[in-house]
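can u pls check wat happens w/ thymidine-5'-diphosphate
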Amino acid sequence: MAKLLVTGGSGFIGSNFIRYWQARHAQDELVNLDLLTYAASGDDAPSNGARSKLRLIKGDIADPATVRRAMKGVKAVVHFAAETHVDRSIQNSQIFLKTNVLGTHTLLEAARQNGIQKFVYISTDEVYGSIEKGSFTEYSQLRPNSPYAASKASGDLICRSYWVTHNLPVMVTRCCNNYGPYQFPEKVIPLFITNLIEGKKVPLYGDGMNVREWIHALDHARAIERVMEAGEPGEIYNIGTGQEIPNVELAGKILKALGKGGESIERVKDRPGHDFRYSLDSSKLKKLGWSPEIEFEKGLKDTIGWYRTHESWWKKIKGKGAFKTYIKKQYAGRAR
Ligand code: NAD
Ligand code: TYD
């Protein structure tokens, strides 16, 4: 039995991870430190349920006193909490630096003082920047292109320094694009699914040829579990599936599944600094015995089914004034 601190456990991947961990490690005590920002998944977020050994602390990872309180008695930390949306980081990046850089530093400092035995930093493939051909290994240069990616890369490097300088047993994972239930509908897959269910068009950036590598959030949770069980302190692990898809093809799959045609695509101006392609070499993690289990076509079908049966969840989010303002700012006047 162990006590685990999960940061950002009310967000998309963090909440999927918590549900997965609870099912597989029922004896473990979990503390979820989450500020419950706009991106927290709301009513369905893991909380202090009667049956659970899960405690929610609503607070900021950049606040040392809160972090110290959350870390009491904790053996391992899995750090998901972050500002995560590239387009928002283009609109305003200040909060990205506070949460993703200073917040990560605050956690590392508390972890050092509390003798934490394992600290897993959930980084991203976006720290490497874009690649035309081939795939990034863990030794590739970091060349982040968006303020989001740069803030994650900064956190990633501070993690390295705490391993090298302070001997804090940090492991970094760099995962490709996630999809699955409870993803906030500002990201491309849930935005497209929910727009189509609502009878709206889907905004495709630029020529739609940008490529992303996709993983189901549950396969990501399994990968993190594997890293916690078998990973080496100070090491970095790429988490990818090889399931690479150009955005226009992705849009086509979602349109088809929802019985819509090409007329439901709205071509919009490209994202500034839009990374062309992400691709990971994940052989290092595969050597530890992990491989993805959810094939993209099946995972996407299930995810579309989930959004169909959880309309009240996303309609509540999309109905909020702040969300509508964001969408207006992001897409108004951008038709090509
Ligand atoms: P998300 O935006 O859905 O959730 C982020 C969570 O962090 C929210 O619950 C939010 O309330 C919380 N949070 C934000 N600021 C906080 C703060 N200052 N203190 C405490 N909690 C705070 O994000 P996600 O998509 O679930 O991503 C989780 C992690 O995985 C992030 O670190 C992200 O960089 C990384 N990642 C995401 C992807 C992806 O495709 N979504 C891919 C690779 C890596
Ligand atoms: P996104 O889900 O924002 O993830 P990331 O930028 O972190 O990869 O976007 C995934 C891809 O989809 C990216 O190439 C940008 C594109 N995209 C669109 O074409 N339209 C949209 O409305 C959004 C949000 C993204």
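The pocket of nicotinamide-adenine-dinucleotide (ligand 1) is lined by residues 7-8, 10-14, 33-37, 39-40, 60-62, 80-84, 99, 103, 122, 124, 152, 175, 177-178, 184 (CB under 6 Å).
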